[in-house]
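Quick note —
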Amino acid sequence: MNKLNQVLIVDDDEVNNVFCKIVIEHMGISGDVHYCMSGPEALAYLKECISTGMPIPELILLDINMPFMDGFEFLNTYHALGYDRNLHTKISMLSSSDVEKDVKAALKYNSVIDYVTKPLSEAALNRLVYKLSSPSQS
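Predicted structure written out below.
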């Protein structure tokens, strides 16, 4: 049984996106995994979900280093649009960077529940699902 209705991966690395999708589906976390190759594409996808009544992702795995709009610019826009207040979506950074200043900066956003270093592991995914099911995250 799937634990999450939908997961959205936002990363410009298609190989990473496919890998994450395989891990998520293999673990039974979600059968509905969508990915976007950029921040603007992800924001357009969320807008489409809202306007058409499509399922809204419960979890977003967000890369930091992307062209056009990096992960922090995405977070700033996400919050400016009020998505942090109006959607029940939580975000985990999923980055190859483990620079402490990036970790601290990401965790300052109320929508960000974790910071995971690539590649996505089963242990990290279990931790994310646990955090999403925790009453303090609701």
